[in-house]
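Changelog note: in this version the structure field was regenerated for every chain. One regenerated record is shown below for reference.
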Amino acid sequence: MAGEKRTGRSRKNRPSPRQRLLASATSLFSTEGIRVIGIDRILREADVAKASLYSLFGSKDALVIAYLESLDEQWRTRYAERTADMSAPEDKILAFFDQCIEEAPESDFRGSHFQNAANEYPRPESDSERGIVEAVQQHRRWCQDTLTELLTEKNGYPGDVQAQQLMIFLDGGLAGSRLSQSTDSLRTARELAQQLLSAPPADYSI
């Protein structure tokens, strides 16, 4: 009887099939890649029946999209928490770099999961594959739009050009960090961003 009660409690507290599928997919996709991971591997890790995967997500590609959207949501939440007490636009901009520097060792220097996903689909051939690339682009658009808004607040004029430059620094820092297995490239990218923010306003109208 006691064993049955313990089993009942453990089942009640167990994450839902959707949560388990997404957690397993996140662990596998972020550490080993997307295309190399098959449906059966995800199902075994999640302890979920194949029918549940198709009823909940419809396909592996849809699960990949959910994985990327979840990563994006988590990234935005961590950024909001990091910048909650900041008022200066410059500090909020540099927080993008600080967050990447902090997270690089935690992810074992695997670089940007968004960049990695896009690299696996250089020529998307179906609507679902195009959906995967679009999920990556949604994260990038949010990053660039946020940087543009902060630069506009800082400078008093549209900051879209500088935002593009900052995104290049960030992309390069993430790629370099993955190759060097260190935060050196990201720290250099942060220094470049700080120099850009400290430079006199440039005339981009020419």
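Spot check on this record: Confidence is low (pLDDT under 50) at residues 1-6. The chain is about 75% helix and 0% strand.
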